[in-house]
Amino acid sequence: QVQLQESGPGLVKPSETLSLTCSVSGASFTTSSWSWIRQPPGKGLEYIGYFYYSGSTNYNPSLRSRVTISVDTSKNQLSLKLSSVTAADTAVYYCARGRRYFDYWGQGTLVTVSS
Amino acid sequence: EIVLTQSPGTLSLSPGERATLSCRASQSVSSSYLAWYQQKPGQAPRLLIYDASSRATGIPDRFSGSGSGTDFTLTISRLEPEDFAVYYCQQYGGSPNSFGQGTKLEIK
Q1: Do the chains contact at B44 and A107, CB–CB below 8 Å?
Q2: Which residues of B are less than 8 Å from A103 in CB distance?
Q3: What is the mean pLDDT of residues A24-33?
Q4: Which of A19, A63, A98, B74 has the largest CB neighbor count within 10 A?
């Protein structure tokens, strides 16, 4: 059974870097692709980017200058870093399996950007 | 970026009725690379349909997807009480992936 679990600080100050981790179990971490998606409170879904098992990445152009997605295969973890955050980055952040459609999702973690 | 527009914004129906949700793309979605998700309050989205018409694992056959090019449809043949939720379409034929704004399916 594939399970994903996001973790990280729930509160980040403006201009700082948001850092989240997604722990994966029950799936081959090295033969799948893994994505981050976010959802501002009460709003729709926004694709952030993915890490492809070959080592390549793809980011939403609207966030590309601030986003880094990486993996630690020894720990079966996916990570997200988003720099220079503002209140507009307040959202529930999800990790999910896939780079096209997303068949398994974490439960999501709310990150609030506020001083 | 391909913009997806879902209609209607809210759909009010009763259990047992048929629901038809629409997703229109600003340009053709290559290879019918379109998915549908269901999201309930406080939960992560759940994949229902991928490649426009293929049901995901464990999804009841009352859910069906159709369409190609710029027009896609999710149909729920007979609504069950647990089907009332928000539904999103998502395209992955163009980069970046993008989602529609959602259709809320509510009990009438």
Answers
A1: yes
A2: 47, 50, 56-57
A3: 87
A4: B74
DSSP states along B52-95:
TTEEPTT--TTEEEEEETTEEEEEESS--GGG-SEEEEEE-SSS
- The token duo for A92 is 């529930």
Q: Which residues of A touch B43 (CB under 8 A)?
A: 107
Tokens matching residue B91: 């395209």
A46-77 pLDDT, tens per residue? 999 999 988 899 999 999 999 999 999 889 99
Sheet holding A18-25, edge to edge: A3-7, A18-25, A77-82, A67-72
CA distances in angstroms from A71 to A95, B16, B33, B93, B97, listed in the order given? 12, 45, 26, 25, 21
**B79 phi/psi in degrees, rounded to 5:** -65, 130
Mean pLDDT of the region A86-98: 97
Nearest-by-Cβ selection for A105 from B44, B50, B90 = B44
Instruction: Tell me which amino acid residue A18 is.
Output: L
Q: Taking CB atoms and an 8 Å limit, are B90 and A107 in contact across chains?
A: no
DSSP state of A88: G
B97: its two tokens: 């992936």
Residue whose C-alpha is closest to residue B97's, from A13, A17, A104, A99: A99
